[in-house]
What we know:
By secondary structure, the chain is of the alpha/beta class. The protein is built from eight helices and 14 strands.
Amino acid sequence: MNPGYTPVIGIDWGKxxxxxxLLDKHGQMLGQxxxxxxxxxxxxxxxxxxxxxxxxxxxxxxxxxxSGMAGSREGWLETPYLRAGQDLSMLGQGLCExxxxxxxxxxxxxxxxxxxxxxxxSGLPDVMRxxxxxxxxxxxxxxxxxxxxxxxxxxxxxxLEYGAVRELESYMTGELYDLLGRQGSLASLxxxxxxxxxxxxxxxxxxxxxxxxxxxxxxxxxxLVVTDHMPALHAASYLSGLLIGAELHDMQRRMxxxxxxxxxxxxxxxxxxxxxxxxxxxxxIRHQHWDPEQLxxxxxxALAGLPPGQDKAAA
Length: 315
């Protein structure tokens, strides 16, 4: 590595996984890496994990920019939130410096991107860490206005207005699906899974506003199988439809009866994006898919002061 310039490392450091990218001074990607170093809690563990990453790329110094749960209260260094309503370009001014203690990291600069905090009309807060970087990338790529959904462990629905977060709603859809599929009375039914579009759409339909409480509807997933009204192979599809459907029905209510956005921007890897695209199609809502990696790289280059590059984020 040329000692005459400082390479940039961008890390999306989540609660479960860590994904990193290495860029040169022109903003070109030199490498990327994914591991399970997300579940860390002590400062020394984070520094050790960072040093391992740099050693893998044979780096003696770097400019490191981190987003995600590493900036949470349970992470490396708790960073203040950017207030909803502020332009996402303000993320660069809110970067928080991490004081590295290891001698091997003496020439490395490390900063964490702040999250975003939103308070609704009733005074209840909602927060994000990591998604704000993707949203900044979306704004840079021309998608800074309208509704955005970021499916995942905690699915986020965000209304952007000229590059600023105006509304934020979080749903524990991914976490509930994972928990229900791994433990409890549904776990034995969802071990073997075969996606069935009909059952998925049946779940979407049942999750509507006229249905019973979601906790009851989830139990019917078990009842349908044990009474031989549904194959166990399709239980996971039905459960997925119930959970995503509950999310989408609530969002329709928040948007207003009969009112649909011009198009919903989906920011997710292809597997999750396809499932949400199917759900949006079912409800007659247009959508556009964006590649999260390219949005992240766009934001990373802007935060690091690098050239924008030529990536195409829309898929």
